[in-house]
Every structure is written in structure tokens, then in C-alpha cells.
């Protein structure tokens, strides 16, 4: 029904086949040329290197260091080094390769990834889940998205700052330049976003190819000098590490998780490049380079404990230090891009689902619909990242705040994936539980270890997540109340009303009136109220009902049906996918092509009584509290339907 559709799906979305409604959201100057044919996957794989793998690819800058340098560090002896390397390797193998690349990335919704894609899949499955289960899944989806948004603030800050800190290794004189350079680089990075992730990927792709080759070769040289570190490939060293270190080992696990912090962004960025190009890049270049570099840092630390303060730069030949610092800085810009693009994707889906206010969304690629740019989100992330740099000042301090958000999102993704396995893929509950339990144990271990960082800066991430969560709950509640007031809730039977019109033959005024209804089998109360108040009707009256499909889009030939009711009244029934927005002028043009008289300057009538939030709930309380801030102009949704506000009239009354 149209009210439910707009409450849950229509607001702020975009129909790509609808030029009249989408033109304000698409900047054609941003479109990139895309090669056709067999080179497409390689082209996208290169772009994926520049965008998707930046975050996880630059983790060697700080992940291994955080295990041996900081408040919860352990001594850099062979047992601990081997244990940390074993945990890193198996984290990459089990969490990234097995969980995300093999399983989770199969759970895409028409190519889109991210936690909202899982919710889309469950909605598509249709009515098989109990209502309370659906409500819980929606709540945890919003919580996971809020954690991911918060993580998007800190990733650019820690990535760029950790790279620029390499200047202090090269020369202590450059220490005063670290913060100004970091802020300048962040400003330039966010300025580039309007060019689109495809264009940025082409620019950053060669940088990341060079980055992975360099870090892999630096690590290989150290491993060749001390090949015994390869023994850490055995999981027994990870187990032995916990046996020896106990609770301190759990704290170090909170640092180990930094090596996989980009995996949730990897999934969220699927819509920008597709699953196959991402898998090609991961297995061919990214994973081998990461393993070699981490093991190289371990070998270098065992050979020279003086590099403990920064083992990544410690294994770089001295003559190449400055070029590698420059390359690392460029690579961390790419790392930030991974999270920024992922946030854009999730925000776009949240807006389409009605969990965020309407935002100006720019489509930046003709070939890949998931490549979008959102100016307001870009500005907010830039300000937040710069503020975090100024607040924490060193990457080791930011590391304390890093990881809580992404591990929380990872655990929630795993939980929702359990329902996708059963209700969308047809797995038995037992088989789904076996695979999900293994992943969930890892996720909760990582999350629990990171909670120990709460007072080291983790509270900031949780506070930011709570604010995002409150905004999304408020938006959903407010817009449900808003659209529940705009669209007629009561449908009157058609036959008595039409018989009444035939009996009294009311006067007709020129023009076309459009009354929005929730159903296509009756007369909306708005029409009844208008007629009772004025005792006239327009020459042409259209009762327009919009319903949603479980598919993301509906073919144009299946979009509209027109049924004459007599007395100049027609029933229009339109269907839209849940990722589309009704374009009312186009619907009327299509109706005119099906035999209706020409429609000029129609007037749209709506029932706007008041905002009714229903009974008390946290979401309704937040909606009433935050509505004045989030929705200064509640009528801005009309232009997205292609309707000028001047053509909309309210029908008031009891």
C-alpha cells in the first residue's frame, strides 16, 4: 500500500528510468567511460584495488605495531611474535577469505552489498519470519549501520595519520608537520569524492598495485632472511599465545583485529565494482602481499628489537624510506576511500529505506549503479575525521578507539546472515547454525577484546554510533507519522459514492484532480472530504494508488493499470520496486497514452491532519524530539516525486 511503501521504501530513493524525477540526483558530468567486453572485470579489479582494499591493505602500518607498542602490548619475544603472526594469518584466512569473500559476498542484493543488503534479502523472502523477529532484525541492522557510519569517521583519520607519522622515522625535524599535513591530505581526499569512486579507483588503482608490490617485497626480504617465521602459519602458535598470556592475550587480540578492519567496507563496496573483480584482486595480489609483509615485520622485529616503535618502516631499506612514506601516504588516502565509498553505499540504502532524511545523491557511473556521491555525508565525514586527528594527535591513540565499531558490525552481519541462509538460500537450521556459530565466535572474541579499549577512546565511537542510531530511529518514526497523515487511511466503497454522484450530478470545474490512495479498491477519504466540503468535482478525477514490489525495480510495461469508474473518475494503480521512487507526472503521461484525456497542470490533493506518532516507544519519542532538526521542511519530498509544491493542496477536516 502506498502509505506503507513510502514509509518504508520510497522516500529519497531514485528510479533510474525516470528522468523527470531523477535529474536532480544525477550529475552526468561525473560519468566515467567504462570499457566493454572481456576487459571489464580487469578494469573493475584495478578500480577495486584503489577503492575497496585501501583500508585492509594499509593495516600493516599500525596493526602489528599495536600488538607490541602501547598500553596493552606484550614483550616482542619469539613466542609472542609467532603467536601474533599466527592470529593475523588465521584472521585473514577465516574472517576475510572464508567469511566475507566466500560466503557473505554471495549475499548481495542485485549487486549491492552492506548490512542493508541483507535486510533487503530478508524482505524479499516475504512474510515467513515472525513479526517480532523482523523487528529485532531491523533494530540490529540499524545498529550495525550506525557502527559502520562511526567507523567511517575514524578510518580516514587513523590511516592518513599513521602514514604521515613515517616522516618522524625519516627525520625528527618533520614531526611538527605531521598534523598539518594529515589535515591537508584529508581535506584533499574528501574534495576528490565528487569525481566518483570509479574515477578515483582508476587514479588510485596503480598506487595500490605499487603499494602491495612494495610491502610484499619488503616482507619477502625479511622472511627470506629468517624463514623460521613461516612456522607461525600453524594455528598452534595462536593457541599457545593465549595459554601463556591469559587475559593480556585477549587485549592483544583487540590489536590483531586491526588487520581485518577493512572487511566490512569490502562488503559494503560491492555495489561499486562487483564481487568477481573484488575476489580477483584479493586472491591474486592483496592477500599474498599482506601475509608477506606481516610475517616480514615479525622476522624484522625478532632480528632487531629497536624497530619495535614502528616495525613497518623498520623493515624498509633506509634509502627507500622517504619514497615509501610518500607511497604509504598515497595508499592511506586509498584506505580512507574504501570506507568513504562504503558509507556512501549504506547511506544511499538507508535513505531509500526511510531511515535517513532525504539527501542529495549523485550517480557517478552509467555502468555501475552503486557508484554514488553524497555531498552532505562527505562534508560531515571530513569534519569528523579532522576533529579526531586534532583530538587524538597520534595514530597509536586512535588505535584505542578503532575496531569496536567494525567488530560490532561484523558480529551483527553474521547474525543476520544466519536468517538469510535459512530463509533465502534454503539451508536447514542446523547447517546454518554450524557455519554461523564458527564465524560468530570469532566476531564476539574480537568485539570483546576491543571493548577493553572503551576508556582508551572507544567511548567516542560508541557515542557517535548511538547518535547515528537515534537519528535513524527518529527518521523512521517521523516519516511514518508524516506519510500516515498525508495519505488517506480510510477507503470508502466505490459503488455508493458513484451512485450518489449519478443522483445529484454535481457541478464540475475544469482541470484534473489527483487523489492519493492506499488501495485500488475504493474511494479515498480525501476525495470524500473534498466533495462534502465543496460539493463540486473536477472534470477529470484520478484516484492514484501506488503499491510496492519485492523486487528492486518493476519493468515499465508492468508499471501502470488504468480502470475507468465512470463519471469522469479513473482508478490508476501503479507498482514500483522498493529501490524506486514514484514519479507522478510520468505516471500521468503514461495514463494519457492509455486513453485518458490530456492532463494539464493537475492538482494533487492530500489529507494532512497532524503527525500521529501512535503509542509511546523509544522510536516515537526520538521522532518527536528530533523531527524539528532532521526535517526542517517536511514538504521537500514532493519534488522527488516530480510534483511542484505549488500543485499540492491539503484537504483538512475530521
From TrEMBL:
Just give the chief location class. membrane
Q: Where is the K+ potassium transporter C-terminal domain?
A: 510-651
Q: Which GO terms describe its cellular component?
A: plasma membrane
Q: Which InterPro entries match?
A: K+_transporter, K_trans_C, K_trans_N, Kup
Molecular functions (GO terms): potassium ion transmembrane transporter activity; symporter activity
Q: Which Pfam families match?
A: K_trans (PF02705), K_trans_C (PF22776)
Q: Which UniProt keywords apply?
A: Cell inner membrane, Cell membrane, Ion transport, Membrane, Potassium, Potassium transport, Symport, Transmembrane, Transmembrane helix, Transport
Q: Where are the transmembrane segments?
A: 81-101, 137-163, 169-191, 203-225, 245-268, 280-300, 320-347, 368-392, 398-420, 432-451, 457-475
Keyword Plastid applies: no
Give the catalytic activity: K(+)(in) + H(+)(in) = K(+)(out) + H(+)(out)
Cellular compartments annotated:
Cell inner membrane; Membrane
Membrane topology according to the record = Multi-pass membrane protein
Q: Where is the K+ potassium transporter integral membrane domain?
A: 44-482
Function in brief: Transport of potassium into the cell. Likely operates as a K(+):H(+) symporter.
Annotated protein name in UniProt: Probable potassium transport system protein Kup
Naturally occurring in which organism (per UniProt): Solidesulfovibrio magneticus (strain ATCC 700980 / DSM 13731 / RS-1) (Desulfovibrio magneticus)
Gene responsible for this protein: kup
Amino acid at each position: 500500500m502506498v502509505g506503507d511503501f513510502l514509509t518504508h521504501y520510497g522516500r529519497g530513493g531514485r528510479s533510474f528510468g525516470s528522468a523527470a524525477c531523477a535529474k536532480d540526483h544525477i550529475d552526468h558530468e561525473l560519468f566515467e567511460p567504462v570499457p566493454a567486453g572481456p576487459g571489464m572485470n580487469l578494469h573493475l579489479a584495478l578500480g577495486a584495488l584503489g577503492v575497496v582494499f585501501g583500508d585492509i591493505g594499509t593495516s600493516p602500518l599500525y596493526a602489528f605495531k599495536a600488538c607490541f607498542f602501547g598500553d596493552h602490548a606484550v614483550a616482542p619475544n619469539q613466542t609472542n611474535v609467532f603467536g601474533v603472526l599466527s592470529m593475523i594469518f588465521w584472521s585473514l584466512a577465516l574472517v576475510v577469505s572464508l567469511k566475507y569473500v566466500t560466503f557473505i559476498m554471495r549475499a548481495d542484493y542485485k549487486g549491492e552489498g552492506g548490512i542493508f543488503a541483507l535486510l533487503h534479502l530478508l524482505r524479499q523472502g516475504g512474510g515467513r519470519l515472525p513479526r517480532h523477529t523482523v523487528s529485532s532484525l531491523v533494530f540490529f541492522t540499524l545498529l550495525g549501520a550506525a557502527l559502520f557510519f562511526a567507523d567511517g569517521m575514524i578510518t580516514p583519520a587513523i590511516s592518513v595519520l599513521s602514514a604521515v607519522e613515517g616522516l618522524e622515522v625519516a627525520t625528527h625535524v618533520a614531526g611538527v608537520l605531521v598534523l598539518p599535513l594529515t589535515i591537508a591530505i584529508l581535506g584533499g581526499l574528501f574534495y576528490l569524492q565528487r569525481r566518483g569512486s570509479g574515477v578515483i579507483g582508476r587514479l588510485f588503482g596503480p598506487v595500490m598495485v605499487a603499494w602491495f608490490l612494495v610491502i610484499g617485497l619488503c616482507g619477502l626480504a625479511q622472511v627470506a632472511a629468517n624463514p623460521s617465521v613461516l612456522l607461525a602459519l600453524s594455528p598452534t602458535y595462536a593457541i599457545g599465545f593465549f595459554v601463556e598470556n591469559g587475559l593480556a592475550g585477549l587485549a592483544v587480540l583487540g590489536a590483531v583485529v586491526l588487520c581485518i578492519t577493512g572487511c566490512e567496507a569490502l562488503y559494503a563496496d560491492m555495489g561499486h565494482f562487483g564481487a568477481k573483480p573484488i575476489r580477483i584482486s584479493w586472491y591474486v595480489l592483496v592477500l599474498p602481499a599482506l601475509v608477506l609483509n606481516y610475517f616480514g615485520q615479525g622476522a624484522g622485529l625478532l632480528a632487531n628489537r629497536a624497530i619495535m616503535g614502528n616495525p613497518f618502516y623498520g623493515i624498509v631499506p633506509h634509502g627507500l624510506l622517504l619514497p615509501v612514506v610518500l607511497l604509504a601516504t598515497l595508499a592511506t588516502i586509498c584506505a580512507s576511500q574504501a570506507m568513504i565509498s562504503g558509507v556512501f553505499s549504506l547511506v544511499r540504502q538507508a535513505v531509500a529505506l526511510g531511515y535517513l532524511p532525504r539527501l542529495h545523491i549523485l550517480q557517478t557511473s552509467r555502468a555501475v549503479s552503486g557508484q554514488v556521491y553524497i555531498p552532505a555525508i562527505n562534508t560531515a565525514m571530513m569534519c569528523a575525521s579532522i576533529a579526531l586527528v586534532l583530538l587524538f594527535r597520534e595514530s597509536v591513540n586512535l588505535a584505542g578507539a578503532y575496531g569496536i565499531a567494525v567488530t560490532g558490525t561484523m558480529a551483527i552481519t553474521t547474525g543476520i546472515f544466519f536468517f538469510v541462509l535459512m530463509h533465502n538460500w534454503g539451508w536447514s537450521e542446523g547447517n546454518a547454525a554450524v557455519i554461523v556459530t564458527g564465524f560468530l565466535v570469532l566476531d564476539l572474541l574480537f568485539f570483546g577484546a576491543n571493548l577493553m579499549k572503551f576508556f582508551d577512546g572507544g567511548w567516542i565511537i560508541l557515542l557517535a554510533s548511538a547518535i547515528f542510531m537515534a537519528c535513524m530511529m527518529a527518521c523512521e518514526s517521523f516519516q511514518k507519522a508524516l506519510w500516515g497523515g498525508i495519505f488517506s487511511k480510510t477507503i470508502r466503497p466505490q459503488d455508493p459514492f458513484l451512485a450518489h454522484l449519478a443522483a445529484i450530478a454535481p457541478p464540475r470545474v475544469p482541470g484534473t484532480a489527483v487523489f492519493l490512495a492506499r488501495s485500488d479498491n475504493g474511494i479515498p477519504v480525501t476525495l470524500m472530504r473534498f466533495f462534502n466540503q465543496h460539493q463540486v468535482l473536477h472534470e477529470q478525477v484520478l484516484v492514484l494508488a501506488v503499491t510496492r514490489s519485492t523486487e528492486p525495480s518493476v519493468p515499465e510495461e508492468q508499471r501502470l493499470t488504468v480502470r475507468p469508474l465512470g463519471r469522469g473518475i479513473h482508478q490508476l494503480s501503479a507498482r514500483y520496486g522498493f529501490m524506486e521512487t514514484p514519479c507522478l507526472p510520468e505516471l500521468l503521461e503514461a495514463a494519457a497514452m492509455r486513453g485518458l484525456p490530456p492532463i494539464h497542470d493537475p492538482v494533487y490533493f492530500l489529507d494532512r491532519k497532524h503527525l500521529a506518532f501512535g503509542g509511546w516507544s523509544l522510536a516515537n519519542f526520538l521522532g518527536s524530539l528530533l523531527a524539528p532538526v532532521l526535517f526542517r521542511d517536511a514538504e521537500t519530498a514532493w519534488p522527488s516525486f516530480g510534483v511542484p509544491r505549488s500543485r499540492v493542496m491539503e484537504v483538512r477536516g475530521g
